[in-house]
Amino acid sequence: MLVALLLLAPGCSRAPRADLVIYNGPEAETIDPHVLTGQPDGRIAGALFEGLTRFDPHTGRGVPGLAHSWEISSDGLRYTFHLRTNAAFSTGKPIRADDFVWSWRRAADPVTAADYSGFFFYVKGGQAIATGATNRLEELGIRAVDPWTVEVTLVNPTPFFPDLCAMRIMAVIPRATVEQFGDQWVRADPLPCSGPYQLESWRPNDRVRLKANPHYWDASSVGCARVDLLSGDSPTAALNLYLTGDVDFLIDKVVIPSELGDVLVRRPDFHSYAYLGTYFFRFNVTRKPFDDARVRRAIGLVVDRRRIVERITRMGEQPASALTPPGAGGYTPPEGLGHRALRATNAADYAAAMRAAVLEAQRLLAEAGYPEGKGFPPFSYMFNAGGGGGARQHENIGVEMQSGLREHLGLHMELRPVEWKTYLSELSQLNFDLARGSWIGDYQDPTTFLDCFLSASGNNRTGWRSTRYDTLLSDAAAEPESQKRMELLREAEAILTKEEAPIVAIYTYVGLFAYDPDRWEGIYKNLTGEHPIWAIRRREGGPTRSRNTAEIAPAPAP
Length: 558
Hints:
By secondary structure, this protein is α+β, with helices and mostly antiparallel strands. The chain contains 16 helices and 19 strands. Among the domains are: 49-182, Dipeptide-binding Protein, Domain 1 (Dipeptide-binding Protein, domain 1); 275-510, Dipeptide-binding Protein, domain 3. The radius of gyration is 24 Å and the shape is globular. It has helices at residues 39-48, 97-108, 126-130, 161-164, 175-181, 235-243, 261-264, 293-301, 305-313, 339-342, 347-367, 390-409, 420-428, 447-450, 467-478, 482-499, and strands at residues 20-25, 53-55, 62-64, 67-72, 78-83, 142-146, 149-153, 197-203, 207-212, 226-231, 249-250, 270-283, 318-319, 379-384, 413-418, 434-440, 503-514, 520-521, 537-538. 28% of the residues lie in helices and 19% in strands. The strands form five sheets. It has a six-stranded mixed sheet with strand order 13-17-12-16-14-15, sandwiched between helices. Strands 8-9-10-1-11 form a five-stranded mixed sheet, sandwiched between helices.
């Protein structure tokens, strides 16, 4: 049967408060770890399903999960993972090597339509399978040596492969349940889960309730017996719930009112940190006139990045001309569009650099056949809208871009706000002109950003294809010498962010979350913003209610 969702009619009493309440953001599209794309979805699925490795709450790196250890061959191409003998689904059914083989084949199969199937490009046979070049799933480089041993063969040495194995798409899922219920398998009751939690209930547009999985291999380390993840797209509501003690953890910046960011970061319970993420916008290069790189570069040149971070975002973000933030695996990104202005050390130099960028943009646009914007068709900028906060910030950035394009290039850009599900759908179908984008690094290497724009990547969503770019990334993957590998990646990123510019970087993120450190522990700052729910627990001897100070009153409802 399918799971009975906890649907409470008006007037019905709610279930008792969970031990930990997290404001999770927009309603999850799915909790299927193989097909999800959004962070809110991934946060839930990451608590329900686990892979060979799991994320370390301190570092965000992959550490032993359902596999307790592994060996790597001398050439770096073969990993031999040893499963825990007590690994089991929440139903008590043991997890064995064959479960991983089937799960990975299902995730790589194009029939599954997983946007993250590109992670299997690192595995022998994975690219051919994921791109539909072959339907022989058995050619994927994973096999069960015996019930407790999984062998994985890679295309090239991949030092961050244990990090990849912690990704949601690499998780093991219950074969029998999927085969019985098909696409609706996550609604099975009971839902067999391989992670530290199992699904207790899911009330759409309200909350997902998780309860500890008694069959999890590390059940004694799970900090909270019950966890609620609230859904909502209003940072104002999120902040109010937090300040009144109804929410314990605001898990990331998008659920915190951006207009109050410069005030909130001064509170002892709001914590900022270096974060591997970039805010950008993408072009649909299959539509004219955005099929012309000169047009794309012209638009990218006139974006006033410094103005955006100083007047709109205001939480310490850094203006950026490249997609990859500095520090991803020791990588130094190339200089992209607008880099001269970003190097300016004072206001006068910045203004001069911006004037030069505008002149160059005007020249490119005229060269493309649109002098002073004449003959350029109206177009739209799509972004996800909602109850305020992050969505309001997207709109404000759009307004800033709209004004600059009109003033400097004579272009008319309309704003196109859409709700979250429509936004994701329209991106996938390339039904937009320009669209807001962002990317949070999944692992600590520049390829977590650059692989998104491979021709075959499901996360590309621009219609842009470059054989040169693909080849450089392929050459970098095969390059054993670290410095030369980084040089190849820089050359590829220069094509992406300066030469052909299917995307335009605006700024790099800082992370921000809120919790009372007197009350909770197990939450740490790391580059990838991974905060495993199992690691969070009430601090021994801490107060039962939050000690949030009254430095800021609950904000009025929107």
